[in-house]
Amino acid sequence: MVAYFAGHLLAGRLMEDDKKIVHDLSNSSVKPKNILTNLKKKRQESMTNIKQVYNVRHKFKKTKRGDLTEM
Predict the structure, then answer these.
(1) For position 41, what pLDDT does the model report?
(2) Confidence band (pLDDT; 50, 70, 90) for 4?
(3) Residue 46: other Cβ atoms inside 10 A
């Protein structure tokens, strides 16, 4: 087993409650950098990186947009 988990997908993934926090803060127009800081303060052992925050935000915006396409 690997003792150092930095960079591993499973170690950095967002939990469901973290995804809800990202969604709520994104709706409040909070910058992704500040969202990540907030998540790391709530859970010290979190290995989430900024890319995962951007991915979750994109997924929420995509579902919110629905069938409308980007132009």
Answers:
(1) 93
(2) low
(3) 17
pTM confidence score: 0.75
Q: Is residue 30, in this structure, part of any structural domain at all?
A: yes
What the block records as the tokens of 29 is 């127009």
The pLDDT score that the predictor gives to residue 27 is: 93
Q: Which of 50, 48, 59, 37 is CA-nearest to residue 10?
A: 48
Count of domains observed in the chain: 1
Domain range spanning residue 34? 11-65
Say how many C-beta atoms besides its own lie within 10 A of residue 7's C-beta: 9
User: Would you say residue 71 lies in a domain?
Assistant: no
Amino acid sitting at position 62? K
